[in-house]
C-alpha cells in the first residue's frame, strides 16, 4: 500500500473531475480520523456560507430559473472564493493543514492556491484523482443529480491537460492516484 506523507501545515489541493471521488475520499479520511472535517474547505461550502443554500445547486434547477439565478450566482461565487481564500490564508498563518475540495482543472485556480501558500511560507501539495472517463460516466449515471455526459467528457479532456501541466506549476509535491487508488495518508501531527 502506497503511503503519502502529508505536510504538517499548508494546503492540499485536490484535483479531479466531477465523479472522481474527491468528496468520497475526504469523507473516508474524516471517518478514519486521518483528518478533521474542519480541515476541508470548498467553494460550495463558502457559497452556502456567504449566499445561503440557493446558489449551491443552481445547476440542478430548470433552465429558466437557472438563467435568472446565474447573475446572482456569479456574484456570490466571486465573494465565496474571496472568503475561502481569506480563511485559507488565516489557517496557513496559524500553521494549519487545509484540504481544498474542488475540481481545480484550470491552471489559474491552482496558481492562486500555490501563490497563497508561497506568501504564507507553507507547503502546497497536489493530490490528483485519475479515474478513467468511462468510470466517471458510469458514476454520473448513478448520481442523484447527474452532471451530464457532455460536461463529464469536457472535464475529462481538461483533466488530461491538467495532468501534463501540474509537474511544472510549483507544487512542493504532487501525487497522482490512479483508480482504484489503494493509498494511506500519514501525518506527522495528530489531527485530534
Ligand atoms: P464533484 O466534483 O462533482 O463533487 P467528486 O469528485 O467530489 O465530485 P464524489 O461526490 O466523491 O465525487 O463522488 C461522485 C459519485 O461517484 C458518487 O455517487 C460516489 O458514490 C461515486 N464514487 C466516488 N468514489 C467512488 C469509488 N471509489 N467507487 C465507486 N463509486 C465512487
Automatic annotation (TrEMBL):
**Superkingdom of this protein's organism:** Bacteria
Designated name of the protein: Polynucleotide kinase-phosphatase
Q: Which organism is it from?
A: Paenibacillus amylolyticus
Which residues of the full-length protein are shown here?
5 to 196 of 869
Amino acid at each position: 500500500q502506497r503511503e503519502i506523507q502529508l505536510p504538517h501545515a499548508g494546503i492540499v489541493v485536490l484535483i479531479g473531475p466531477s465523479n472522481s471521488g474527491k468528496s468520497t475520499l475526504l469523507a473516508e479520511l474524516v471517518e478514519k480520523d486521518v483528518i478533521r472535517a474542519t480541515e476541508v474547505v470548498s467553494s460550495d461550502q463558502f457559497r452556502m456560507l456567504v449566499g445561503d443554500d440557493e446558489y449551491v445547486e443552481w445547476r440542478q434547477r430548470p433552465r429558466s430559473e437557472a438563467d435568472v439565478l446565474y447573475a446572482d450566482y456569479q456574484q456570490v461565487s466571486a465573494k465565496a472564493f474571496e472568503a475561502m481564500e481569506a480563511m485559507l490564508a488565516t489557517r496557513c498563518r496559524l500553521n494549519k493543514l487545509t484540504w481544498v475540495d474542488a475540481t481545480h482543472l484550470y491552471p489559474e485556480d491552482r496558481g492562486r492556491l500555490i501563490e497563497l501558500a508561497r506568501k504564507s511560507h507553507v507547503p502546497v501539495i497536489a493530490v490528483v484523482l485519475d479515474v478513467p472517463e468511462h468510470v466517471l460516466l458510469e458514476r454520473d449515471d448513478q448520481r442523484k443529480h447527474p452532471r451530464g455526459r457532455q460536461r463529464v467528457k469536457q472535464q475529462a479532456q481538461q483533466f488530461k491537460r491538467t495532468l501534463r501541466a501540474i509537474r511544472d506549476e510549483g507544487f512542493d509535491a504532487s501525487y497522482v492516484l490512479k483508480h482504484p487508488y489503494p493509498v494511506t495518508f500519514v501525518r506527522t501531527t495528530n489531527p485530534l
